[in-house]
Design goal:
Layout lengths: L14 E2 L6 E9 L11 E3 L2 E3 L6 E4 L5 E10 L5 E3 L7 E3 L5 E3 L13 E9 L5 E2 L12 E5 L2 H4 L19
Antiparallel strand pairs: 1-11, 2-10, 2-12, 3-9, 4-5, 6-7, 6-8, 6-10
Length: 172
């Protein structure tokens, strides 16, 4: 059963990872259903959809692996809980792979009609192709930041500072 509203998929043009922003942290927000949820999973895709033409097409593939360094979730702005992939903090999605699922686990019940915030930290090598970020909705508090390393981005988990302009498809 669907666990949220506002499901998203990576979309837009491929991005070439550049020095200083090949690590990306996204902050996406979803609404929980009108019933409590206590177990759900996230899927991280190895593909994206194009936005041109008459309809989206699942044709955009990266030129290299995407490494997910960490995933955190917060419910109604509460404490952040770390999610895992087969018991590991992150996962590697090979080029053009179907993707990876998080473990089926959650520490507490998500109440009905809650705000669920998901932070995802990932990277690719500089000069390699990177899947585009989902289009963020800044008016909802969604953000996307880039940096040269994971350590520069982890302090932004829970923050509401402005997105990194070159990564925010809504700003370009």
């Amino acid at each position: 059963m669907h666990w949220s509203s506002g499901a998203k998929i990576s979309s837009g043009g491929l991005v070439t990872a550049v020095t200083g922003s090949n690590y990306v942290l996204s902050k996406l927000m979803f609404g929980s259903p009108q019933y409590a949820v206590n177990r759900f999973r996230l899927h991280y895709s190895g593909f994206a959809s194009t936005e041109g033409g008459r309809s989206p097409q699942e044709t955009v593939l990266p030129g290299t692996a995407t490494v997910i360094d960490g995933v955190w979730i917060a419910v109604n702005d509460g404490p952040r809980t770390t999610w895992s992939f087969s018991g590991s903090a992150g996962a590697t999605i090979a080029s053009a792979d179907f993707g990876s699922w998080t473990d089926l686990a959650f520490a507490a019940v998500v109440p009905p009609d809650s705000l669920v915030t998901i932070y995802t930290l990932y990277h690719t090598a500089v000069e390699e192709m990177q899947l585009p970020v989902c289009q963020v909705e800044p008016h909802r508090g969604e953000r996307v930041w880039g940096a040269a390393d994971a350590a520069s981005l982890t302090p932004l988990i829970g923050a509401n500072t402005a997105s990194h302009f070159s990564l925010d498809a809504a700003a370009i």
